[in-house]
Amino acid sequence: MAIERVLVAGGGVIGSLYAGHLARRVEVTVLTRRPEHARALAAEGLRISGKSDFTAKLHATADPAELADFDLGILATKAIDLEACAAALSGRFPNATLMTIQNGLGAEELVRGYGEWPLVSAVTFMSGVRHSDTHVEYELDTETWLGPYAGTTTFERVQEIERLLAGSGLHARAFPDLRPAQWSKLIFNATVNTVAALTDLAHVSRFADLDEPTDLGFLVRDLMDEGKRVAAAAGVELHEDPWEMNVLAVRKGETQAAAGAYAHVPSMLDDVRSRRRTEVDFITGALVREAERLGIPVPLHTAMYRLVKARESAYS
Amino acid sequence: MAIERVLVAGGGVIGSLYAGHLARRVEVTVLTRRPEHARALAAEGLRISGKSDFTAKLHATADPAELADFDLGILATKAIDLEACAAALSGRFPNATLMTIQNGLGAEELVRGYGEWPLVSAVTFMSGVRHSDTHVEYELDTETWLGPYAGTTTFERVQEIERLLAGSGLHARAFPDLRPAQWSKLIFNATVNTVAALTDLAHVSRFADLDEPTDLGFLVRDLMDEGKRVAAAAGVELHEDPWEMNVLAVRKGETQAAAGAYAHVPSMLDDVRSRRRTEVDFITGALVREAERLGIPVPLHTAMYRLVKARESAYS
Predict the structure, then answer these.
(1) Is A314 close to B200, i.e. CB distance below 8 A?
(2) What's the rounded Cα separation, in Å, for the pair A26 and A9?
(3) Nearest-neighbour CA in chain A from B235: distance (Å)
């Protein structure tokens, strides 16, 4: 079944990057949280700058009741808002494939609780900067990785989505099994996001420094090693080594910083700076819960988890 | 030898609390870092409010060359500035007893490198809030603990200083051996200061919460347990259990907060908020170095050390 109509639920940076690019190829509707956001998008379109440069026309609404049928739904809400989103779609759109993109683990199971849709698991390494309701800058033009979730859909369907994303100017890669990639990203995120949130550092070269004993790279590596032990106990062979992902990302960041671009601010640091609730329960929390289930000690991730929760409690 | 003239080196909160109170009993000179601070103190005196309430007259200078003879020198500089202070006194004041008050370990050895003065080790639990160069509020009226350092002076001399402090309205307690108290405070400080600096939390009841698995109290207790293992390996029997110190302090803080007073902001959090270099190298650093010397693993303190160093590096 061809993909002609796409719903993007969530008008944050990642949702906007999908919606804007895809709207150049297919009919796109964005489901936003705020009605004024939807009105602005419908009236002005969505401008994407940075790695891409265009303004896309799309539909937008803040009211799930107004949604027309779609073939593919990209659920790009924050992990915290995913359950409400799945509930709003419950009992409708039986022919749609839904794709989850949330950080952490468990998004698919959660959506599964609200309907029998075919599900695609995805993780993305894209990033951007939100300039306004109708303008997002495409910062890191890295890949989205996607795979069929637990036999609910086929690899062919996933490859169809991969082609659609690639054809719209994004980078995408289909996997028969996403778990190795999901776990690589989980370990990377649980480490880089919490370290950034607590140190107020963007993801800079210091995350890979291994010169002095007090250097941050040692902590980053120790956190990743803990995560790798949990993945091994879960029987997952990682797609990429999280430490190598870290080293590559900070090198790329340095090149971009030298070219005058900003250093990448991990979302958890952005949340802490804006005194928003972070996704730590879904990222580090998912890793710590898996570790407990498997009987693997993760004292450093447990410490980071408690520190970030305490940091959030200091907002008030 | 009676104590009639006291030098207080360092015009920060702690130095000011000693100088102001002692000036009511003996002749006090404050050695400040900034000349305008010394001029203001000499002209206006030093106002102490809060737990005490008076204005003290005292001498003040920012030039060590101007210092007259003194019987007792309280070195109340930040740990970072102690070496320069000891160097400035080197070769002079052979009859003076010097008392170090710095957080961490190793202040006495450092001063010892600059002269053969009799040395008194001290730690203080007092705290205050600096309102201006000439006004400090006395917040926590807790004890100063002091003891002779490594045979360089007698317990009687220490008791003499204890009486002088008590007679000036401060709380003091002389110990034949300060190490058990120093280590209790080191473990308390290495934990409470770094946790506060990273979470942006004052020392509030959350530091003792042990309800949910993500509660901060578990991390605080784990950090203190690591510290206690190092103390045990060093052959030190702690004077007070750091966890009990923590519970008592947050309970006291709650009572004061209910009465409208502020929650106590640990110095390392105050430093981070003001983007100043912290004392982490002298506090957590001292503990981690001792642990390494003794072969005791301290992964959590090592992580906190790296995080605070990274937090400092984010200032620029």
Answers:
(1) yes
(2) 16
(3) 26
